[in-house]
Specification:
The protein is of the alpha/beta class. The protein has two domains: 5-221, Alpha-Beta Complex (Spore Coat Polysaccharide Biosynthesis Protein SpsA, Chain A), CATH 3.90.550; 227-344, no CATH class. It has helices spanning 15-26, 46-56, 70-80, 99-109, 143-155, 171-174, 187-196, 227-231, 235-241, 247-271, 274-294, 299-310, 312-328, 337-341, 348-353, and strands spanning 5-11, 33-40, 60-65, 85-88, 94-95, 114-123, 126-129, 138-141, 167-170, 201-213. The longest helix has 25 residues, at 247-271. It is globular. It starts with a strand and ends with a helix.
Length: 357
């Protein structure tokens, strides 16, 4: 008998995208599914549309709650889920027709707790493959291997190892984990770090079955102004979950944490909002203290963060001069571009802890 898959869809004010998303789920070639539409206090008609889907298809359950954020919406879905497997789908994204069938088949064939595939980026009518491609039958086993593979894939520009979508998860292995509702951004990466830390096995499927829809107003497209700053709190989970990993993994996490701190301070300076910069300074200094204790910072980021901690006012003035000079020369970048360009070339941990079956 086909195992039941619980598809969890968090929804908030995306009515123009929701119908296509749900239709792509209900049209799956794999039929034994339950679709949990979690309306997180929408005000644009999403709630009514969820109810309409529930009336039309017995596999759909419409669940309404007061607005509490995407983490809380996903947690409600986890609480209500009854399936053997879990699949998360953002309410503005799309699935290929055989998405669930391909993933559950791979998970069962290789006896893995997580099946993961690549994705397509959709911007307007343009579809673009994510960088890199998985090889058939690649199985990554254990936390050191999973975190090493996370860095290897992410360094290629493919972010799928840090998302909860584009994958299938066995509920018995991860169903008791919850998203941290306090995180405004980065809650999905923190959740996946908790999963990988459980010594699970992941099978990679060479298939672009998930379609990530780029839309104006999303967190990564300007909906959250200082998205690097807002994502920093989730790093405490990443640091905690890798504390018992191999030294090479801990070094990677510490180095990336230092870079993100540097990028967060730069983002605040670029915004020109000195009051917000002053308000965040004390907290960022404490984050820097943790980064210094972890070690492994690059020389540039170590020196810049030390200067910031010693003289934040001077650091602001220097930063504003640099950004204004770049702008006058036509070199201005959008907020966060520095973080996107950061792409480490090689990771020693990848070679030490990658297992292929």
């Amino acid at each position: 008998m086909e195992p039941l898959i619980s598809v969890i869809v968090p929804i908030y004010n995306i009515v123009e995208y929701l119908e296509n998303c749900v239709n792509s789920i209900l049209g799956q070639s794999y039929g034994n599914i339950e679709v949990l539409l979690i309306d997180d206090g929408s005000t644009d008609g999403c709630g009514e549309l969820c109810d309409a889907f529930a009336r039309r298809d017995r596999r759909v359950r419409a669940i309404h709650q007061q607005n509490a954020g995407i983490g809380a919406a996903r947690n409600r879905g986890l609480k209500e889920a009854k399936g053997e497997y879990l699949a998360f789908v953002d309410g503005d994204d799309l699935l290929k027709r055989d998405y669930l069938e391909v993933l559950v088949s791979a998970a069962r064939k290789y006896a893995c707790e997580i099946a993961i595939c690549s994705y397509l980026d959709k911007e307007g009518e343009c579809l673009k493959k994510a960088p890199g491609r998985f090889e058939a039958g690649t199985v990554v086993k254990g936390k050191n291997a999973c975190f090493a593979r996370y860095y290897e894939v992410t360094s290629s520009g493919n972010h799928v190892y840090g998302t909860v979508w584009a994958k299938l998860l066995r509920r018995s292995a991860v169903g008791d984990l919850r998203f941290d509702k306090r995180f405004r951004l980065g809650e999905d990466i923190a959740y996946m770090y908790q999963c990988y830390a459980r010594e699970l096995s992941v099978v990679e499927v060479p298939f672009e079955g998930y379609i990530y829809v780029e839309r104006p107003g999303s967190a990564m497209r300007g909906g959250v102004r200082d998205f690097i700053v807002e994502a920093l709190p989730s790093w405490k989970v990443r640091i905690r979950e890798t504390r018992t990993c191999a030294p090479a993994i801990r070094k990677l996490v510490a180095r990336d944490y230092g870079f993100m701190l540097y990028a967060a301070v730069s983002q605040l300076i670029r915004s020109g909002d000195y009051a917000k910069y002053r308000k965040k300074t004390g907290w960022l200094k404490r984050c820097c203290g943790k980064a210094f204790r972890l070690g492994a910072l690059g020389r540039k980021h170590y020196g810049m963060l030390k200067l910031f901690c010693f003289a934040p006012g001077l650091y602001w003035r220097i930063g504003r001069i640099v950004f204004q000079a770049k702008a006058s020369c036509g070199q201005a970048t959008k907020s966060g571009d520095a973080a996107r360009k950061y792409c480490p070339r090689t990771y020693e941990a990848v070679q030490d802890y990658r297992f292929v079956r």
